[in-house]
Amino acid sequence: MAQGSPYRIDNETPSVYELLGHDKIVALSTAFYTRVYNDKDDWFRSMFHSSIESAIQDQYEFLIQRFGGPDLYSNRKGHPALRMRHVKFHIERRGADRWLQYMNEALDEVKIEGDLKTKMFEFFTDVAYFLQNVNEDGSRIYGPPVQKK
Q1: Among the residues of the chain, which ranges form H helices?
Q2: Taking the CB of residue 138, how many other CB atoms lie within 10 A of it?
Q3: Contacting residues for 20 by C-beta, under 8 A, at least 6 apart
Q4: Is the peptide bond before 14 cis (omega within 30 degrees of 0)?
Q5: Contact 15, 1 (CB under 8 A)
């Protein structure tokens, strides 16, 4: 559990990882990235360069670690540093919104429901908008300047 965390999800006892287990978190990431990789809009799909298998593994290892399980992500890739790892992508509000749509659908597909779903979706919402790095006018919120096309 994160000390002093603002996320209600961190107050779960047992932890989210203990409640869901490894396999359910893998299923969530699989359901999510199946939607992402089937997206037909280039502006969204082009943010995801790795293989679907790699994307699924990165996300489920991060979520397992973040939700109170073993440090799978950090042991393989180092500190999560979400903004640093996402700064190279052009993430607008509509991208965060689409990401959240697919995550909400994935939560439903794997039958994460009730208060736990609400708390998880609050966390995902905060993270999605935290990673947004381009304003509606095209200016950078953080990171290197946006290249003009």
Answers
A1: 16-37, 42-45, 52-66, 72-77, 82-86, 93-109, 114-131
A2: 10
A3: 28, 67, 112
A4: yes
A5: yes
Q: What is the mean pLDDT of residues 60-74?
A: 91
Question: Cα–Cα distances in Å, from 99 out to 15, 95, 142, 149?
Answer: 24, 6, 19, 24
Length of the chain: 149
Q: Would you list the DSSP string of 45-68?
A: HTT--S-HHHHHHHHHHHHHHHTT
pLDDT digits (tens, 9 = 90+) for 78-136: 777 676 667 777 788 899 999 999 999 999 999 999 999 999 999 999 989 988 888 88
The answer for 103, left when phi > 0, alpha when psi is -120 to 50, beta otherwise, is alpha
- Tokens coding 59: 């996300």
pLDDT attached to residue 100: 97
In angstroms, the CA 120 to CA 64 distance is: 13
| pLDDT confidence of residue 85 | 64
Distance, CA of 25 to CA of 9 (rounded, Å): 15
